[in-house]
Design a protein that fits this description.
globular; binds flavin mononucleotide; five-stranded parallel β-sheet; Rossmann fold; alpha/beta; 181 residues; 5 strands
Length: 181
């Protein structure tokens, strides 16, 4: 069975990115995957301190116990899917803090080779170019970590929770899930 970690980054449980993440999850589970949803906004994880103490005390991070609780999920996953909105043309800080702690994998000589990955994101602006910051960061991060990018669902023009229902975002998320099988 495929193990997929779905890391989400919006505090709005019924918001647009979480709605697409749910559509992805249901489709992936219907195809037999085990999907573990990790909500970064439910965690208390600060930024990386660049102390280089990663794994030196037997844990991935010397400062962030809540990151240490989830680090193994990324390691054991066959696939890692990120779902978050654009905040200030960029990755929202709570999920970015989780991603920053992937630095510990680099320090320990670990990467995401053999894993598949995808991005689901959205923004208020109608201009698709507003998503280019998160697209670039995602692609370069996964290139560095040696993960295989399966696809991206990038939906502009959604602001209020529920706006995504007026787009094909959920359908795109289901089609993205199909690509993992
Ligand atoms: C702190 C904050 C910053 C935002 N920055 C941007 C932005 O730079 N560009 C944009 O188009 N939308 C921006 N938005 C709007 C969200 O991307 C948009 O409402 C999105 O649909 C929220 O997704 P969610 O429903 O999954 O939370 C911002 C929203 C918040 C709360």
């Amino acid at each position: 069975m495929k193990k997929i970690v779905l890391l989400t980054g919006s505090p709005r449980k019924n918001g647009n990115s979480n709605t697409m993440a749910e559509a992805f999850r249901k489709e992936a589970e219907s195809r037999g995957a085990e999907v573990t949803v990790i909500s970064a906004t439910d965690k208390k994880i600060g930024g990386c301190r660049a102390c280089q103490a990663c794994y030196k005390n037997g844990v991935p991070c010397a400062f962030e116990p809540e990151y240490n609780e989830i680090a193994g999920e990324f390691e054991s996953a066959d696939a890692i899917v990120l779902a978050f909105p654009v905040y200030w043309y960029n990755i929202p800080s709570q999920i970015k803090a989780v991603i920053d702690h992937w630095y510990s994998f680099c320090v320990a000589g670990k990467d995401f080779s053999g894993k598949k990955t995808a991005l689901i994101s959205c923004c208020e602006d109608e201009d698709p170019n507003t998503l280019s910051g998160v697209k670039f960061a995602f692609e370069k991060t996964m290139e560095l970590m040696d993960a295989e990018i399966v696809g991206e669902v990038l939906v502009p023009g959604v602001n209020e929770a529920g706006d995504v229902a007026k787009t094909d975002g959920e359908q795109q998320a289901r089609e993205l899930a199909e690509k993992f099988f």
